[in-house]
Amino acid sequence: MSALPRPCVHLVEDDPSLRQAISALLRSLNHDVATYGSAEEFLAAAPNLGLGCVLLDVHLPGDSGVVLQRALNQMGFNMPIVFLTGHGTIPLTVQVMKAGAANLLPKPFSDQELLNAVESAIAVDRDGWNARAAALSLRQRYESLSPRQREVFVLVVAGRLNKVIAAELNITEITVKVHRRHIMEKFEVRTVADLVRSAEKLGIEIPGQAAYTKV
């Protein structure tokens, strides 16, 4: 698996003094920070961002932070969002958390509260990157199988014996063993149980079983 990019904190805050104070604090602790003065400015940059988190002021000029969150969700934006608000209410908290926010910090917040929220959100995003990379790698392994190997793969994880697979596919048992070995090598697993778990993650439909949910 390739190395993850260095995380960046994306601060969307219209108050220049607060934007400067927060960014200075985070940079002093070796965090990369990018700043935006409006929702529109961040929305334009969002499709090209890497690993990190968003610090988003709820009350922004133009589109509010809540409207921006909705737009980001619609475009499939995965980076965790930590809302900052000077007028937090229970309905607002429920609204943004239901929409997927990682946290909501009422102003004024302490330096430690901010840092804890940032580090927690970055950890969540790092886990997401790792999960997506693992899913992509698994899909690429499956797609590298030949059509015949895919047929053998499905029957192996369904629990068929080699001789049964051979009869069903009208090939020799030795050929089944060769395909089976190559499949295990490509998936880098040692047991059928591991191969079954791979099938579950891929959402492969197994004869006699319901289809699994894809990752």
Automatic annotation (TrEMBL):
CDD domains, per the entry: LuxR_C_like, REC_FixJ
GO molecular function: DNA binding
Lineage top rank: taxon: Bacteria
Ranges for domain HTH luxR-type: 138-203
One GO BP annotation of this record: regulation of DNA-templated transcription
Modified residues (4-aspartylphosphate): D57
UniProt keywords, alphabetically: DNA-binding, Phosphoprotein, Transcription, Transcription regulation
Response regulatory domain span: 8-122
PANTHER family: DNA-BINDING TRANSCRIPTIONAL ACTIVATOR DEVR_DOSR (PTHR44688)
Protein name (database record): DNA-binding response regulator
Organism: Aquabacterium soli
